[in-house]
Amino acid sequence: DRYVGLKANWGTLKLGSFDSPLKTSQGNVDQFNDMNYTDLSNVMAGDNRLANSIGYESPKIADAITIKVTLQPGETTGGDDGVADAISASVAYEQGGLYLAAAVDQGGEDGVELDQDTIRVTATYTMDALQLGALVQNSEPSDGSADDVNSFLVCAAYTMGKNVLKGQFMS
What we know:
Blueprint: E1 2-8, E2 11-19, H1 21-24, E3 49-57, E4 65-72, E5 86-95, E6 98-106, E7 116-127, E8 130-141, E9 149-160, E10 163-170
Antiparallel strand pairs: 1-2, 2-3, 3-4, 4-5, 5-6, 6-7, 7-8, 8-9, 9-10
C-alpha cells in the first residue's frame, strides 16, 4: 500500500494505492495469504489493490464495528466521469474471538481495476488455540458479459506452541 492520509478521532482518510475494503474484509480467513499457489486470489475475484483512490475508515464504533469505503474516481478524458467509477465498501464486527464482515465491490467503466461486481461475507471464530473460518462470495463481470460465479472457503488453524497446523478448502 502507498498512500498519504489523515487520521483523527473521526476516522482515517487515505489518498493513493491501497487494498480495497472487500479484500481486507477477509480478515484472517485466508490461512495461506500471499503464498504463490494457495492464496485466495488464485480462486476468487476481489483481492484488489486500488490505485488513485480515496478511502475512508471509521474509528471502531462501540469498540466492535468498523466501516470502510473506497471510491475510485473517473479518470477518462471526454467521458462523463462521476464522483466514482468504482466503489468498494465493508462493515466488520470484531469482538472477543468472533469476526464477521460483509463487503461489496461495484465495478465501473473500462480501465477501472474493479471489473467484477462482488458480494462477500466472512466469519472466523477463535477459541484458545483453534481458529475456524468461512467465506462465501458471489461475483460477476461488471459489464454483465458472463454468468455469476459463486465461491466459498472453509478453513481451520490450530496453534501448538510455535507451530501452527493450517488447512483450507476453496471452490
